[in-house]
Amino acid sequence: MSLNVNAASADELDADPALRGHGPEIARYRAERGGFTELRQLDEVPGLAGKLDDEARARLSLA
Fold this sequence. Notes:
Layout: E1 3-4, H1 10-15, H2 23-33, H3 54-58, E2 60-61
Parallel strand pairs: 1-2
Pfam families: HHH_3
Protein name: Helix-hairpin-helix domain-containing protein
Region (Disordered): 1-21
């Protein structure tokens, strides 16, 4: 089961090991920009650039 980065709460995002500690920032970025259209946009979230490997991205979805 994948985690929808466009629908998950900050707490749900924080529960993923690769995103831990970044949930509130991801939720804020998403709200400011109206959502994510590509997973690579997570690299634009402060503190996440270059931290998500392919395994982590495989657990995430946009819908």
